[in-house]
Amino acid sequence: MSRVIVRHAEYNYKTLRPVIFEILDALAGKVIQRNSRVVIKPNLLAPAAPDRAIVTHPLIVRAVAEYVIDKGARPRISDSPAVGSFDRVLRESGIREELSGLDVEYKVFKDIVSINVGKPFEKIDIAADAVNADVLINLPKLKTHTHMLLTLGIKNLFGCIVGLRKPEWHLRSGVDKEMFATLLVKIYQAVNPAVTLIDGILAMEGQGPGKRGVPRKLGLVMGSTNAASLDATITRMLGIPEGHVPTNRSARRLGLVPDDIIIDGDLPEIKDFRLPDITRIVFGPRKFHRFIRKHLVQRPACEDDLCKLCGECWKYCPAGAITHSTKMISFDYDKCIRCYCCIEVCPHGALSQYETLTGKITRKLLNL
Ligand code: SF4
Ligand code: SF4
Predict the structure, then answer these.
(1) Strand 261-264 vs strand 2-8: parallel, antiparallel, or unpaired?
(2) Class of domain 2-264
(3) Closest ligand, as measured to the CA of 325
(4) From ligand 2's centre to the CA of 281, what distance in Å?
(5) Could you report the per-residue pLDDT of 288-340, keeping only the tens digit for each?
(6) Which of 25, 137, 154, 318 lies most in the core, judged by the most C-beta atoms within 10 Å?
(7) CB 348 near ligand 1, within 6 Å
């Protein structure tokens, strides 16, 4: 049995603070001890203002930090952003300013510890500060994700993989979403957050989780000690079958989603939440996989007039599939593993995914 708390809220600190305090009291009140080191892990994907709905809102981070201080414990805010420096993300997200005057430490995830998570990955290098925290508080943002459909509690903890080890894992998982989802669930189990509290006040729909996504007001904060239960509940709330999200499937397969999830609060039914356009990565007979991948799986593409040649995409691409001239970037679609990391990290919204004409025609003919 696990419990998911649902509360309606706005970004108004006077009303938000008691809501966050109530949720944390119910879920983590007993585990946060005086002087304990509490690591708070927001979604700090990239430098972005709070109204873009890319990062966890600074007011939520502030309320959680104040709660920890109130308990006599020591809050530390940590993450390993995919794009930009940790300091820049803290500044542009408004977190630095919002928390000024509070006794909070900021520390980028850097040192690693090897954790044996069993087959098929065996040892994974994870941020030591996340693994060794007395208490870890996971603070995701409710967003869509062009690769994993949604990024919720479990996916947020991919930030505990330090720096360029993230694209390495994308490459090792290749086109296999199930494998990648299992990796994410194993990371969740290894860092074992005491509580996951998701910012769904201003969520993101469409082509998330980066600049291509569209902010969508839902007015919700939700929490649970079990991120798998929380993710499954949110997925159902958005009108999506639970198994459509790969991390939900992996979490259920690994026995992390109990059959009896108690909903504490008023869970709305959201029927018009816009999901990203994604195609399945691998389907059909194995001998056609190469053709299918080449033509039927959407490719990343660049709108050259939006591209600033900043280099984030080619630095991050796990497959080394992006090259550039002085005028534009180019993709090697034979090398590209369709992880869409480049779309996620592009700070200028210049990248999107598209299907080739051959793909469209084949899909129509085969009724796929
Ligand atoms: S596509 Fe985006 S990330 Fe890549 S170089 Fe252009 S602006 Fe930078
Ligand atoms: S080009 Fe983009 S989608 Fe393809 S492998 Fe590189 S980062 Fe992933």
Answers:
(1) parallel
(2) alpha beta
(3) 1
(4) 13
(5) 666 666 666 788 999 999 999 999 999 999 999 999 999 999 999 989 988 88
(6) 154
(7) yes
